[in-house]
Write the structure tokens for this entry.
Amino acid sequence: MILVTGGAGYIGSHTCIELINAGHKIVIVDNFCNSERKVIDTIQSITSSSVVCVDADVRDKQKLTGIFKNYPISAAMHFAGHKAVGESVAKPLSYYKNNIDSTLALCEVMDEFDVRKLIFSSSATVYDASNKMPLDEESSLGCTNPYGWTKLMIEQILRDLSISNDIWSIVSLRYFNPIGAHKSGKLGERPTGIPNNLMPYITQVASGKRDKLHVFGNDYPTIDGTGVRDYIHVVDLAEGHVRALDYARNHGGSQAINLGSGTGYSVLQIIEAFEHATNISIPYVIDPRRPGDIATCYAKTDKAKRLLNWQTQRSLAQMCEDSWRFESQK
Ligand code: NAD
Ligand code: UD1
């Protein structure tokens, strides 16, 4: 069985479905601090399988030990953590405590039970802002906010662990910008409050929840002046995790691997693609740049192709359609 921490969250829930589709049995552990319990029912109804879910904080070693005693866990995927950049600047201790302590507790219990295959949710945010594009895994590392530092520190902890004992097999997946939703329209991203990220904001403008999009800056050195990012469909991302698990089962050591599409799109291109895919117009205004944003960020994806035999399959149009289907069916 595969232990999935944070399996009720946006990326974790889609990955649970792809794991089940690939024939794996899973155990989810989630404390629902940023997700809803009904997501577990949705995973079960989409896959027609029953899923074990333990309501617990990953930092609770006693509960984690109970899970490893009760179920034959052979590997773990670690999604659980806090993820909002702005909030991490306001509450650094909460971010360091949750993200780092949960990883330490998980690795300690895994070690105790001789389970040493781990897939970790890292982020493109670990790359230093001064790098040339596209970013490959050897690009220089560095962060500008506590959230990013937790990811970089955890990657280091995991590298040290695999050096200490080569029986560990660890893959840190550096995600670019996940968007989209499950094609059923039943599973997707549910941000609370005002969305920070572009696609959830656009879908809320489309549904009438917000009156217009604020485009953060049109004076970047990009195709049309707006920020360029590498958007990846969440189901492609989920499939990448299944490939990473296969890789970890057959190789030792630790690897950091980009999961992105390799293509950058500007904010205006995303608006246009969304309007085209949904036939809904998205009113917008140009606002000043958002502090901390960079002009362009996209991945070099050769390593994922080489090691995982994986690349994205889903188009930007599909990402827009699926994001909208989820928002409009809520
Ligand atoms: P999410 O908030 O939707 O999911 C995280 C899940 O973990 C939630 O269900 C939450 O309740 C749970 N959780 C948090 N702390 C926990 C704890 N201590 N114990 C048990 N459960 C806990 O986030 P997501 O978008 O699915 O992201 C998953 C992972 O991927 C995170 O580690 C995030 O930092 C990373 N990541 C996300 C993005 C993105 O854009 N969404 C990009 C790069 C990396
Ligand atoms: C965000 C996170 C980053 C994370 C990444 C992937 C922040 C500050 N950074 O980055 O840590 O790794 O997601 O999930 O949250 N934009 C607008 N208007 C909006 C929202 C966004 O114009 O209302 C623009 C941004 O300026 C940017 C692009 O859209 O150019 C994408 O923004 P966003 O979705 O927030 O992702 P990132 O900035 O890449």
Q: What stands out?
A: The chain has a mean pLDDT of 97.
